[in-house]
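fwd from M.: "can u put these together and see what the complex looks like"

so here's what she sent:
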Amino acid sequence: MDEKRDRDTFISLYETVYQDMYRFAFYTLKNRQDAEDVVQDTAADAYSGFGKLRELGAFRGWIFKILSNKCRRKLKEYMTQPAELLQELSVQEDLTERIQVRNAFWQLSDEERLIVSMHVFAGYTGKEIARILHKKEGTVRSRESRALKKMEQMLEE
Amino acid sequence: MKDYSVLEKIKNSADSCEIPENIKPENLNLNRREEAEETKHKKTGRRLWQAGAAAAALVLVLSLSFITMGNRNHQENDTAVFESTDEGGAKESRETSLKDEGQKELSDLYVQAESYDEVYERLKENQSQAKSGTLLDGGIVMEEKTVEESAAASDAASGSAASYNGDYSQTNVQTEGVDEGDVVKTDGEYLYIIREEQDVQIVKIDGAAMEETAVIRPDANASENSILDIYLTEDTLQIICQRYDAQMEEDGEDTYYMNYRGFTSVYTYDVKDRKNPVLTGTVEQEGTYYTSRKSGEYLYLFTSVYPQESLSTQYSVQDPRNGIIPLVNGEAVPVSDIYIPEDKGMGGSEYMLITSVNQETPDQITDQKAIMEYASRFYVSTENIYLQRENWDQKDNVHTAIAKFSFSEGKIKGESAAVVSGSVTDDFASNEYEGYLRVLTTGWRGGEETNSVYVLDSDLKIVGKIEDLAEGESIYSARFMGNTGYFVTYRQVDPLFSVDFSDPENPKILGELKVTGFSQYLHFYGENRLLGIGWETDPETGAYKGLKLSMFDVSDPSDVKEINKLVLKNIDYFPGEYNYKAFTVSPQKNVIGFLTTSYESSGTAVSYMVFSYDDENGFSAGLAYSMKDGGSNQGEDTRGVYAGSTFYVADADCITAFDMENGYEKIGELEG
């Protein structure tokens, strides 16, 4: 592939995933700017490694894998930055259901958010999540089910 | 299903997210990156991770020998220590005291429950608190994440202690003398391998010759049982399994939902005859597997128990069917073994359940403790379990409450407690030596990170500390050797410097050395050498350039030098980054073994690498073996093991043997 076509192909594939990528990052990181940066970064990384992607059908799984690991690193950085972490958690009162769901989601732990995001936005199966996060499948399954249960409780209010 | 509807709600709630203009396809700017890449990374042909912020590292070398100074210097800071004997005022001062550092009674953190009803009531309160979602939650829950993630650093003693009893490798552990379960074990003559979480394969190994002698499936319903870790102690093999009991529960008209209760079991086998393993006993406790340790004949098992939400009026609280009180071997934990948080609202709505079992009486639990607490970070030394829980206050100050439980001959006993400022950002940032607990913390002050070193005596009295270290940075990895501690911190620019604290009142920076990149894992490598494994970064852009091996000369802790380094390009990840058990490091054998992965279009390319090291030639690659089909579970469950002069790369799919004395020539293979 020549460069122009390479780029066009990349962009057309990116177009199919970038919204979910952003939602994934925003929901996981709870910070708009960081979410944007992380998606930018992922896109640049993916583009530079794009030549190696022979099977275009694998694009989604591949780019989300890069994104997942980037978000994970970012979360680790947050560990020591409580101020930033809590920034977007400010509780608003009159909430639409969507905002309620989002706020409930943001009550989950870092790991829980990451796992649920990987399921909901990236579309990974439990086994795939376990592989990418290098955890046991049973652990991923139980973390997710516990996270959803917590959310249920919160939303029942 | 309820779960499904929550997932849908999450998805729907995100639909309205406003997508930033900058990342829309038409605006996406790849050029900037392309240019940067052409100029900076022409040779690599491919840029690896680009960190958002310039990443760098700094190693602090702290000589801790002095720190056993008296408490007098810190009286001022400790004034708020909870000493009130006035019961009326106790509640208030206690609440504040937990936010102030200093020695505490264990009962300031946790009290033994007096009745099952009290446990239940507390659980309900905590659950409803969780519902209203206090801001505190984020901070507290977060802790658990890093327990598994931060394989970054390490305990010093075990460093020198890649020590092996025979001429074979052992699981890389946190604390020398305290064994940890893993997916592959060896005793030099046999390999024991967990396969697909379903069975354990025993293989006789003798150089290139490999022969399966037995396969163990813990029970007939193995498909519901996941095998997560194994232990081998001479002729005793212990298998840790987890399963879920699903119960359908009615939830209003025509609505049911599945309630999952996790259970974790230990199956103990006598494997004296490796062809005929004999099951000698089983214990089971409620909860999902968290971790475990083994010391002597005792296995200590940690599970997280999430109680059922509703109290069924049909059964009493402690009735096993009710799901309120955690079960051990089918029975509710005795009330006297349940600890509930003293400070209302600080506790979790779940339990950490700790039990011990002697391998000689494998049907019985020796002791048990259930602590109503989020699964926290904890550190296990040879004698004590330290539970650590972060507390955030409204001003974003963070403190860490430490609760100490001793263990001896299977007995688990609550001992003492303390609160220190900051959070412990790494499992290995805690270390016990000669009765003293050393803890490294990263706090947050005035918008900047700040780090502290604490030394606590056996009663958890703070006897020494250093504050305000490395502002604007956080501790990234650590390793202790006797009275010396080494720390890698992380920040925008990249000096590596050493700090001398031998005069406790006048800590001094002794030297400063520029080193690019940062270590995520540290391991002592023979006399006066410290091995760092991490990432090389571009000092200007912070871009990740590859996996980096560094060797530091620590013969003079005040003048640490990086004497050799090697950068491996085109690597995106290495499992050791989050799991120290994935490393096989032995200075005696001169082996540095680990797995690397690269994201390729066709999937993840996984290679097993073995390096050797000498000062003159630096790091030399012994083995670079591309795993077939990316290895088992993408290499996550692959381990390098040596026995005599043979190196085995082993996982569920395949065992491959290499001759270490002949350039790691491949000499044998056994398909799983």
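replying to her w this: The longest helix of chain A spans residues 3-29.
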